[in-house]
Specification:
The complex is a heterodimer of chains A (473) and B (455). By secondary structure, chain A is an alpha/beta fold. Chain A has 14 helices and 22 strands. In chain A, strands 1, 2, 3, 4, 5, 6 and 17 form a seven-stranded mixed sheet that branches. Chain A has a five-stranded parallel sheet with strand order 8-15-9-10-11. The mean pLDDT of chain A is 95. By secondary structure, chain B is an alpha+beta fold. Chain B is built from nine helices and 18 strands. Chain B has a six-stranded mixed sheet with strand order 9-18-17-16-12-15, covered by helices on one side. Chain B has a four-stranded antiparallel sheet with strand order 1-8-6-3, with no helix packed on it. In chain B, strands 5-4-2-7 form a four-stranded antiparallel sheet. In chain B, β13 and β14 form a beta hairpin. The radius of gyration of chain B is 28 Å and the shape is elongated. The chains are: A alpha/beta (473), B alpha+beta (455). The complex binds flavin-adenine dinucleotide. Flavin-adenine dinucleotide binds next to α1, β2, α2, α3 and β4 of chain A.
């Protein structure tokens, strides 16, 4: 041991205070464990609270409002002097983040957990070295939970410089609105941030190597998302690869299509959103003996156990869909397993939401997946165009679609495109998790007038008994 | 990949087992299904087969330890392909080139999460089962139950609508697994009763509730059937066995505990402060009883009916009855004659606590020659406790109360306590029992005398 190094012990050391880590720490403390939550950043909450889910949703809501207000004349509402103060908007977002991250710290400590700020590194499979501002601290633990999350992937031809080439973090704290924004990568982060900047007034070019947006969805979903992005005014460059950039007073992004033909996009800012990579290097995993796969994701089983007894991992760093609610669930499983309860991540679905306008949300299988899994399927679709509630909200774009097994009527998947789809998808997730059949959902009263009736109607359509649309013969 | 093996719950009220021996040591390689240890339940000695192929990395228990259902007994480092991988969706790919960025898959997998630590014996899946691609249909609640009971949902016959697996289906499978285990092993291993030298009543008529019990109860209104715990089953058996074997008689007398109470109050706080132990009045009774047992050894004895011999114990192991949420257990203070009262108080507190948490070992529940039960907290005048086999007597402490009594022709208020001695009249005469109790009372009534008798 280094002379002068402080040291301390704990039952469970949790590394990383993102959704996965902070929830694991709270739950472990509730279960009576002596927990130390170690976080490198100044605030808790991880990517999600500081520079991910929450900030992006704040900006999305504000720009949605802007959009709605500017299109409300149909209802007889005209707003004059509708102004955007970007500083104020970012300030509002920052206050939300501050309140939430402070709340997390409060919950951790009030439940009896301890917090240590610093960068953690394994020195053995029972010991961590944490580099704090006051110097290194040795932490001995009985069990450890690795929840170090992920970071954005950098492209060698487009290195982040915080000015011309930025990632999602910088994009969520703009000081100005760029006139021309080029987004490289059309995943959900690219789509969400593209919508935000378009509405803030930027000209947005979106470069995506795949031929389709949300390529893994069924065609009607791909179509509506693509149409809506175009309608919004985002210029899509599908099937194009960003090759390199040139810069003088402005930047230029050189892109090439499948045939190799190059073209140039002018940019005041370039947002690279091509995916995220696990934060598993540089933390002494070898010293602890923890194994990762070839992409750096830590390998775990259903109980979130790594190959080293007593060391657990969860959240973005173990892969799977990189979503906060997946991390939350895994955190509960890990905490319960550590406390000796027979818990396991046995979920049938991990629902997901893309906060485009309209939102895209789904739970369970797509049509293609259901067929690939050997099901004969029935589907039912309800367009929000036929929903009274959607009309009163002036939000008639989109639909709800239910996919079920044709023989048993077991619900296999639901996809909703529409206003507040993210709020509605939990009902579908519950139905699938509970093993519901079409008539279980059809037999449940949905309040009127709500958008959730759309889900009900899609189920009835699958049963050939829709009311507000004509049934397929 | 590290794989822990947890003692599976095979139903039938078995919540724990005693580790008989390890068949492996750390570093050994094991094949899947190779037996790695022997455990003893109250049904049988069972070999537990390894869930994986790999090497043994850690043993968490020693032979003789009690292992509870769910306890991680052993850790294997499994050869990778033998461990069922978590149902992981294709992940959001951090593409290395400008690529379709974040892509989300919708479905972790259509396969249900099969719990890697399956029970040692698995029921063969029903031949008429659905195609394997279909996940077993069970709600999260039922899935959690299956995990708790160590049941693989794929092996459960579903009774619910559309092939839904109900809680009841899971429970049924769990008890079938147990039967299979017990039957498979009954040929090889002799059933061993859990409690040493506990003569079990043979299966005589009346072991089971007469059938009319059910009909009569359901005739008069809704009823509920609750499976009893293994502890409760043991209690039931032991109580029956005691009542069926011994000739119970109870003798009651009263003791004036005014002085004892005063002395106890004086030292209680000091002891608590000094020794950090909850000092109760119980150690005084343990010590008084030991002194009286020395004088009347027939109360610290057992009866060997086969050989028509009395077994007089030359040690003073005193049991004390402790309530737990699951039922009554009787931890034992060994060699109570050689321990001071503080030590005894410590042992009582510690063992009672661990009994409540079900962390007490079988060893600590065995070997008593005599038992004390404090039924005072229940109030009442006195009770007639059941004598734990193979002992022959039990001392009952009853509620301590202020009562008017006559002293020197005057009515005065004294702290009084009823004490009872229940004894096996086959071996112990009423006079001996009464004399024993009298001896206890005389020591209790005058703590100075007790002091003089302490060794
Ligand atoms: C722009 C954007 C929008 C998003 N929107 C959504 C959304 O709408 N819904 C959704 O579900 N998900 C969303 N996500 C994804 C979500 O943010 C992540 O899935 C989630 O944060 C993962 O949680 P985590 O706990 O695994 O890791 P993180 O949140 O990444 O937290 C890891 C923490 O560990 C700390 N750390 C790392 N290494 C160390 C170390 N060695 N020592 C100490 N501390 C360390 C980091 O500082 C960080 O605070 C979004 C992400 C982005 C980037």
């Amino acid at each position: 041991m280094v002379v002068g190094t402080a040291s301390r012990g704990c039952q469970v050391a949790v590394i990383g205070a993102g959704p996965g880590g902070y929830l694991a720490a709270i739950r472990l403390a509730q279960l009576g464990k002596d927990v130390l939550l170690i976080e490198d950043a100044k605030t808790l909450g991880g990517i999600c609270l500081n520079e991910g889910c929450i900030p992006s949703k704040a900006l999305i809501h504000a720009t949605d409002l802007l959009e709605e207000a500017s299109h409300a004349n149909e209802m007889g509402l005209t707003f004059t002097g509708l102004n955007l103060d970007i500083k104020k908007l970012v300030g509002w977002k920052d206050r939300i983040v501050k309140q939430l991250t402070g709340g997390v710290a409060f919950l951790v400590t009030k439940n009896g957990g301890d917090i240590l700020h610093g960068r953690a590194k394994f020195v053995t499979d029972r010991r961590l070295e944490v580099l704090t501002e006051e110097g290194p601290v040795l932490v001995e633990f009985e069990q450890a939970v690795i929840a170090t999350g992920s970071r954005q992937v950098e492209l060698p031809e487009f290195p982040f410089d915080g000015r011309w080439v930025i990632g999602s973090r910088e994009a969520l704290s703009p000081t100005s609105v760029p006139e021309r924004l080029v987004i490289i990568g059309g995943g959900y982060i690219g789509l969400e941030l593209g919508s935000v900047y378009r509405r803030l007034g930027s000209h947005v070019d979106l470069v995506e190597i795949a031929d389709e947006l949300v390529p893994f969805h069924d065609p009607e979903v791909r179509n509506i998302i693509t149409q809506r992005m175009r309608h919004l005014g985002v210029t899509l460059h599908m099937g194009h690869r960003a090759l390199r950039m040139e810069r003088d007073k402005i930047a230029r992004v050189i892109i090439a299509g499948k045939n190799g033909k190059e073209s140039t996009l002018e940019a005041d800012r370039i947002l690279v959103s091509v995916g995220r990579t696990p934060l598993s290097g540089d933390m002494g995993l070898d010293a602890a003996g923890v194994r990762t796969d070839d992409r750096g994701f830590i390998r775990v089983n259903h109980r979130m156990e790594t190959n080293v007894p007593g060391i657990y991992a969860l959240g973005d760093v173990v892969g799977g869909p990189l979503l906060a609610h997946k991390a939350y669930r895994e955190a509960k499983v890990a905490a319960e397993v550590i406390a000796g309860n027979p818990s396991a991540f046995d979920n049938v679905v991990i629902p997901a939401v893309v906060y485009t306008d309209p939102e895209l949300a789904w739970a369970g299988m797509t049509e293609t997946e259901a067929k690939a899994a050997g099901h004969r399927i029935v589907t039912g679709t309800f367009p929000f165009r036929a929903s009274g509630r959607a009309m009163t909200l002036s939000a008639v774009d989109g639909f709800a679609k239910t996919i079920a097994d044709a023989d048993s009527h077991l619900i296999l998947g639901v996809v909703i495109v529409g206003r507040d789809a993210g709020e509605m998808i939990s009902e579908a997730a519950l139905a699938i998790e509970m093993g519901a059949f079409l008539d279980d959902l059809a037999g449940t009263i949905h309040p009127h007038p709500t958008l959730s009736e759309g889900l009900l109607e899609s189920v009835e359509a699958a049963l050939g008994a829709a009311v507000h649309v004509l049934n397929a013969k | 990949m590290a794989v822990e093996f947890r003692l599976p719950d095979v139903g039938e009220g078995i919540h724990e087992a005693v580790l008989v021996k390890w068949r492996v040591k750390p570093g050994d390689t094991v094949k899947a299904d190779e037996p790695f240890c022997d455990v003893e339940t109250d049904k049988a000695v069972v070999e537990l087969p390894s869930p994986v192929a790999g090497t043994v990395s850690k043993l968490n228990f020693a032979p003789g330890d009690v292992v509870h259902v769910g306890d991680a007994m052993i850790v294997f480092d499994a050869d990778d392909d033998t461990v069922s991988k978590p149902a992981r969706p294709a992940s959001v790919s951090p593409e290395s080139s400008p690529a379709p960025a974040t892509r989300m898959t919708s479905q972790p997998s259509s396969a249900p999460a099969s719990v890697p630590h399956s029970p040692p014996v698995q029921a063969a899946p029903d031949a008429s089962a659905e195609p394997p691609a279909r996940r077993p249909l069970a709600t999260p609640h039922t899935r959690a139950l299956a995990r708790k009971l160590g049941v693989d949902l794929a092996a459960v016959a579903a009774s619910g609508k559309g092939g839904r697996i109900t809680d009841e289906d899971v429970r049924k499978t769990a008890s079938r697994l147990l039967q299979d285990t017990a039957e498979a092993l009954s040929a090889a291993a002799e059933p061993v009763p859990v409690i040493e030298s506990m003569p079990l009543v043979t299966h005589e008529a009346g072991e089971r509730l007469p059938e009319t019990a059910e009909r009569q109860s359901t005739d008069f209104g809704p009823v509920e059937r609750i499976r009893i715990s293994r502890l409760r089953q043991l209690i039931a058996r032991n109580m029956r066995a005691s009542k069926a074997t011994l000739a119970h008689v109870t003798h009651v007398d009263e003791a004036d505990v005014t002085d004892l109470d005063a002395m106890y109050r004086k030292v209680k706080q000091q002891v608590a402060d000094m020794q950090n132990v909850k000092f109760t009045i119980m150690p005084f009774f343990v010590k008084s009883a030991v002194a009286a047992l020395k004088k009347y050894p027939v109360l610290n004895a057992s009866f060997d009916e086969d050989n028509q011999e009395m077994i007089i114990k030359h040690y003073y192991h005193v049991g004390f009855a402790a309530d737990t949420p699951e039922g009554l257990v009787v931890p034992v203070i060994r060699d109570a004659d050689r321990k001071d009262m503080i030590r005894i108080a410590q042992e009582i507190a510690d063992k009672a606590e661990r009994a409540r948490e079900r962390k007490i070992t079988l060893d600590e529940l065995q070997g008593a020659g005599f038992t004390i039960t404090n039924v005072g907290p229940l109030g009442g005048l006195f009770a007639t406790p059941v004598i734990p086999l193979p002992q022959l007597a039990i001392l009952g402490m009853h509620a301590m109360k202020d009562r008017p009594v006559v002293r020197n022709g005057q009515i005065v208020i004294r702290k009084m306590m009823n004490l009872s001695i229940s004894f096996d009249h086959r071996m112990i005469d009423g006079m001996t029992a009464a004399a024993f109790l009298h001896e206890v009372i005389s020591l209790i009534e005058s703590p100075e005398m007790l002091m003089l008798r302490l060794v």
